[in-house]
Amino acid sequence: MKQPIDLKTWNRREHFEYFFKQDVPFWSVTANVECTGIYRWCKEHGRSFAIAYHWASLKTANGIEAMRMRIENDLPVLFDAVHASTTVARPDGTFGFSFNYFDPDFEAFHESMLKDIKRIEGESGLKYTHPEADVIFYTVLRKVCFTSAEHSFSLGSQGAIPCFAFGEAFEENGKMLLPHSIRVNHALVDGQHVSRYYEQLEQIMNAFR
Predict the structure, then answer these.
(1) In angstroms, what is the C-alpha Rg of the chain?
(2) How far apart are CA 56 and CA 34, in angstroms?
C-alpha cells in the first residue's frame, strides 16, 4: 500500500522541488558497517550471513520514512513497506534478480530468501517481474572490500529507488566490518536520513539474537 505526500504540508516540499529539477539528483556514500554480532551469530547457528545483512538492512530502511518514499507521476509517495531485490550469482557466471518481501521475523525471511536463491541458481536470464517501486535494489560484490561503488539505473520511477551494495566482510581490531554503499535520490533522502540508517543498522546488527 502507498499514499501520496501532501506537498502543501510537507516540510521538505522545497527540498523535493529543488532536487527533483536537477539533471542528476542522486548521491551516494560508502561506509564500513560493524557487523560483529550478526556475523558471529550466523556462523554459530548455521544461517546465511548474506541473507542476514539483507534482512537487517531492510529492517532498518523500513523504520526510516524517507527510505520508503518514491516518485510516481513526478510526485512523492510513501509506501507502507519496502522489500528486497538482490543479485544472485549462478554457477555458469551469470546472475539473476530475486525479489523477497520483508518479514520482521528473521527466520521466516531467511527461509523464503534461501528458497528464492536456490530457484534462481537453477534458472537462466533475469526474469524480474515485480511492477511496483516498493523495493530496494541490492547487489553483492564478493571478495572485494571496496571503498566506493556506483550503480546503473533507469530514470523515471526507478530513479527514486535506492541502490545498495555490500562487499566482503573483513576483520579489523577484533571487529567484523562490512563495506556498504548506498545511492539515493536527494529529492527524497537527505544526509540525516543516511546517517540515521547507518547508525541504526549497526545497532541492529550488533544486537542480533
Answers:
(1) 17
(2) 12
Q: How far apart are CA 100 and CA 169, in angstroms?
A: 23
pTM of the predicted model over 0.90? yes
How many other C-beta atoms lie within 10 A of the C-beta of residue 195? 12
The domain in which residue 162 lies consists of 24-73+81-206
How far apart CA 96 and CA 145 sit, in angstroms, is 22
CA angle 2, 99, 93 (to 5 degrees): 150
Is residue 11 in some structural domain?
no
Q: What is the distance between the alpha carbons of residues 15 and 123, in angstroms, rounded to a whole number?
A: 43
Q: Tally the residues of the chain.
A: 209
Q: What is the CATH number of the domain that holds 177?
A: 3.30.559.10
Q: How far apart are the first and last CA of the chain?
A: 30
Residue 94 has which C-alpha cell? 551469470
- Chain-centre distance of CA 26, in angstroms? 15
Strand pairing class (69-72; 95-97): unpaired
Q: What is the pLDDT of residues 48-69, one digit of tens each?
A: 999 999 999 999 999 999 999 9
Mind giving me the DSSP string for 184-195? EETTT--HHHHH
Question: Residue 18: inside a domain, yes or no?
Answer: no
